[in-house]
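Example record used in the benchmark description.
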Amino acid sequence: MSRAVTVQPTADVAPAALRMTDLSAQERPRERLWQLGAAKLSTAELLAILLRVGVRGESALQLGQRVLVELKGLVGLMNLDPRSVAAIRGIGKAKAAQLSAAVELGQRVAGAQRGERPRVSSAEDAWRLLAPRLDGQEQEHVLVLLLDTRNQLIEITDVYTGSLNASMIRIGELFRFAVRNNAANIIVAHNHPSGDPTPSPEDVAVTRLMVDAGKLLDIPVLDHIVIGHQRFVSLKERGVGFS
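Model output (structure tokens):
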């Protein structure tokens, strides 16, 4: 007598991944946004729209859910580090940049709605404002925080891209925006793409030039901050370049 044989799937046969096209139109994040508005979508759905496509074995929605878990929710998303996010499987530099830009844009909009002008009273305050812009950059950028008489932020200006070299950087450029915006004080910051914020001899030399120029223009340079990967060095706190 013949017997029916049931063939069990082997362990190395993976189930088919859910694709966006497998969902009905009403279930796809982009269509749901059009129908219901962004406020009605889950955080994972919003991430899926930003990520656009998933990876092998995961839809964009599943990838968004996994990213949210790895970042430990909205707080981790708000403070995301582009390099760390890029290291998540399926993300990479391009998607990490998209997420970082979206978070930064949201924070700026929220700040504008509240009329926020953050007060910068320490090097750490400045670092928190600048780290999302500078940490992970592949080139050196020189940014200037323009402050009023109460050290409240007026504007952050990107004034220079390239190696910080005393023979190349124009110190006047650092102060041109300060004069134009009636800034009372400034804080200068730049990043080290290597991730190591240890000040170089050139950093110290440029700091001395900036401090001297600030004294002449009566626009004090309160600090020069070097930003690395998740850390920073304040030249003012180290007593380097300031007299």
